[in-house]
Amino acid sequence: MRKSDEVPEDTMAVSRTAETLVPLLLDDLRKRASHERRRVRAGETLCTTALVHEAYLKLRRSEGWQGELHFLRAAALAMRQALVDHARQKLAVKHGGGGLESLETIGTEPFWTSDERLVELDEALQRLSALNSRLTRVIECRFFAGYSETDTARVLGITDRTVRRDWIKARAWLYQQLGEHGDLPEPAAT
Description:
mainly alpha, about 65% helix, RNA polymerase sigma factor (TIGR02999 family), WH-like_DNA-bd_sf, HTH_Sigma70_ECF-like, DNA-binding transcription factor activity
C-alpha cells in the first residue's frame, strides 16, 4: 500500500468510535424516536424503526464524532432532519409537488400536528441558527430529541440554567416568528 493510500490513524480511531457508539446508544435513540414520533404525530406513515433508521443513516454518514456528547448532539439534529424530511415528502405527495401553504391557511391546530407546520418550524430554526446557533441546538435537543434540561446541558457543555434561559429565548423568538404556531410545548420529563 502506498503511503498516500493509508488511512490516517486518527481517522481510523474516529471510525472505531462511531462503530462503538452507535450500537451502544441505539436503544436510547430508539426510545427517543418513539417519543418524538408520537409527539409530532408522524404515526401512521412513519414508524419508530423507520425514524431510527433514517436518523442512523444520517449519523453513519457523519464523521468526526468526538465522543458520546458529540454523538448525542448529532443524534438530535439527525432526528430533526428525519422528521422534517418525512414531513416534506408527505407534503410533496399531498400537494402534487407544489409549495407549502401559508400558516394562515393551515388552521388552528398546534404546528407539531401538521407537516406544514413542522416544515415552517424547520425553516424558522434555520433562520434562528444564523442568529444564534446555540438556541437552535437547545431546541433540537429539548424538542426534537426529548432531552431533559440536564441532558441538554451535558450534551451542549453549558449549565442547566443556561439551557433554561436559552429555551425561553428560543421559544419567544419562534413565537415572534410563527405566532401562536411557534409556541413549543415543554418536553415531557425524561
